[in-house]
Amino acid sequence: MELDEFTQANAPKSGGDGFQLENAKLLDIAVEGTAMVKAGSMVAYTGDLTFTGKSSAEGGITGLVKDAVSSEGTPIMEADGSGHLYVADQEKKIQVLSLDADDSISVNGNDILAFESRVDYEINTVGGLSEAIAGGLTNVYPGTVALTTHGDPLVATPPITTDPDATVAWSTNLSPSIETNKTIEIGQQSGESIQMAFTGREGFVVVQPYEEGGQPAQQ
Fold it and tell me: CA–CA separation, 77 vs 38, rounded Å?
């Protein structure tokens, strides 16, 4: 490939407001004011931006995933100013969702890449779920949210049972319960001792072809 062809083929997309995918694994956020992104996710930016780490709720944010929810927590940083911010997370694929006024989703904190500062973001737990999901659990309300998945996600309708380490998000009208493998295992363990059970016939569950801490997924 000629150098000119390389630079033209991979140049930033022109124009665009808000959240725009440069490719499946790189998000361009047109910042005019404030945007919230996962700490450490910035790979480049243009314009005049400053970054501030957040450890507690401020401004329009109802709450952040903190140590009270899990020992890991979900570090968030605030980008302020004017410019284009490019963010990514370990080559994970990015899913940009626009939540309407009546929409809300529950998300594994590890899988949140960015969201508008006007988005409400609050802590929630479901009996033992904070122990099952290392990244914490949050509810996200109306606005634009960017999630990340290892590989292409599966969006399924309940009833369905999932591995917590592969579960990315679900509609908040669902209330998953934690189930344990009741079979006595001797010798080689199955690795499926805890599952999340989603019941009912409405809503959706997002899972990825990857278990956090498991084997890498095919990208």
Answer: 6
Is the torsion defined by CA of 208, 213, 215, 218 positive or negative?
positive
pLDDT bin (cut points 50, 70, 90) of residue 176 is confident
What value does the mean pLDDT take over residues 123-146?
Answer: 67
CATH label of the domain that carries residue 163: 3.60.160.10
pTM for the predicted model, two decimal places: 0.82
Cα 33 from Cα 126, distance rounded (Å)? 34
- Position 173 in a domain: yes
Query: Is 10 inside any structural domain?
Result: no
- The CA distance from 130 to 71, in Å, is 9
What band does 83 get if pLDDT is binned at 50, 70 and 90? very high
> Phi/psi class of residue 161: alpha, beta or left (left: φ > 0; alpha: ψ in -120 to 50)?
beta
Overall domain count for the chain: 1
Element (H, E) at 131: helix 129-132
Segments forming the whole domain that contains residue 109: 17-207
